[in-house]
Each structure stands twice: as C-alpha cells, then as structure tokens.
Amino acid sequence: MTPVGGDAAPSAVTLLANPAAGGRRGGEIAARTARRLLARGVDVDVVAGRDAAETRRRARDCVAAGAGVLAVAGGDGMVHLALQEVAGTSTALAVLPTGSGNDFARVLGIPATPPDAAADVLLGGVRRRIDLGRCAPPEGGDRPLWFGTVLTSGFDSLVVERTERMRRPRGRMRYAAAVLAELGRLRPLPFTIEADGRVQELEAALVAIGNTSCYGGGMRVCPHADPADGRLAVTAVSPATAGQLLRAFPRIYRGTHTAHPLVHTFHAASVRVHTPDMRAYADGEPAGQLPLRAEAVPGAVEVLVPAAA
C-alpha cells in the first residue's frame, strides 16, 4: 500500500457530491469535508449533477481530465456510479459514506461517524488496490458493468425491487422489512451456474456473487469474499421454507449462515448465472436480465482506506 498521509497527502481532490444521499446530511458532510480539506491546504473541486446521468458525465469528465482523487459523498449507489468511471484508471476513489447502506465503505473500514472521520481518511489514509467485479450478458454487446460489493439474483432481486418502492424505514431496517414482505412469496428457482467452466444446475432461493462480503446495510452474505484474491465468492441458498429463512436471517448479518446445510459457498474467477425471467442487481443497482456473466478483475481500482486497514 502506498501512503498518502503527511507529506504525501493529495494536493487536490475532486469531490463528487450527492446531496440526496442521507437527506440533508449528505450535503452537509460534503460541505464540511470540503472546508476541512481546504483548511489543510488541499485544493477542492466540488462537482454535482442534477440527476444520475449528469453526475456520471461529470465524474467521467473529471477522470478524463486527470483527477488524482475522486471523493464520492453518498451511498453505495453513488459509489457504483463512480466505479464505472474510475475502474481501470489511475484516479483513486475515496468514499464519504452518507447513504443508507454504505456497504462498500464498511468493508474498506471507512467510518460513517463522526462526521469528520471519512475526511481524515483522505488526509491520513493509505492507497490500496483492490479487485472489482465486472458483469455483462454472456453474448457481449452491452458495456460491461463494474461492481464493488455483491451481484444478486433470485430472492435478493425481489427484495431489492421491493426496497426501492419503500420509503421507510431507512438503512438496514428497510431491507429487513422488504425481506419479511417477500418471504410470503418465496419459491424455488431453477438456476444454472457455470463457475470457471464447471456447470451445475440446482434449485435455489437466491444466488449472490460477491467481490466483497456485504450488502443490504451490513448483511455479510459472502463472508468468504476477499477483494484482493482475484476471485469472486459465490453463495447459493437452497430452497427453504419461509420459517427456515426467517430463522437464518440474523445469521447473515454475522456471516455465520455459511455453516447452514442449505447454504453452498465457493470461489471462482468467472461465474455465469441464469434463471428465467429474473433481473440481477449489482451494488443494489439494476444490472440487467439474466443470464449474466461476472468475472473478477484483479487490482481494478485504487481506493483510499484508513492507515490501519
């Protein structure tokens, strides 16, 4: 890891702000961080778009202009947007977590509180190269999609879709409420999974493909994921009753569900997953209809993390 603190602290930072993330708190954290960096002699260029498309265009322009550090103030959706532009470039990504889930920041050890903690990572953290996942339809054609956390399909997809329709509660409680709502509609799905050329067909309630371990506001669905090993971690949950899933649900937050006989885990550098009439989500954002092929891309992005991480 390359240090960026002290004399090596960045001389300039581009701050991509999303005031909608975390309500008013998102805008306040972005402004507070900008003032803190300026007080330490760091040049700050704050950019924001009126919608996701404009924000992504602005991020692309910043990277093309040679931004050394792109700091994202927002949640996993904003991180996902930024990853599409910084992946495979020399621009380092810093995260100021102000969203409801903040799973990418969580696995990097970047705290959401106190308010200045993430800004201090910018000033005194270290640079670290990590893997990203990249997914696309098997036949190609569409531009590949980068993801930093987890690609989900099956029951998880249905939960994410319901979560998007909900306004309350916030954070992990909203995800938990969506899980409970979808349990009554639970059904087994016929999945085909091709992992590093090996094909298996199985019935499953969900399949999660993780570059990192958690999603949904701290659910450690792929606790065996390591974003520095050049592989993706796969968790497949066999058909279960609503009661069985409900009892296992708390274990997912602890990452101890992998010992359950209904749970199958493995690693692969490349995974193709398919079940009919199902969408997939990456970092909680739409990734398209199955089938999709995902692969691990070693060292695809440089991130700023706490010095002790």
Automatic annotation (TrEMBL):
* Native source species: Streptomonospora salina
| One Gene Ontology MF term | ATP binding
Q: Which PANTHER family match?
A: LIPID KINASE YEGS (PTHR12358:SF106), SPHINGOSINE KINASE (PTHR12358)
State the taxonomy lineage.
Bacteria, Bacillati, Actinomycetota, Actinomycetes, Streptosporangiales
Report the record's Gene Ontology biological process terms. phospholipid biosynthetic process
Protein name as it appears in the record = Diacylglycerol kinase (ATP)
Look up the EC number in the record and give it: 2.7.1.107
Where is each DAGKc domain found?
A: 8-138
Family, similarity comment: Belongs to the diacylglycerol/lipid kinase family.
Looking up Gene3D superfamilies in the UniProt record yields: 2.60.200.40, Probable inorganic polyphosphate/atp-NAD kinase, domain 1 (3.40.50.10330)
Its keywords, alphabetically, are:
ATP-binding, Kinase, Lipid biosynthesis, Lipid metabolism, Nucleotide-binding, Phospholipid biosynthesis, Phospholipid metabolism, Transferase
Cofactor(s) this protein requires:
Mg(2+)
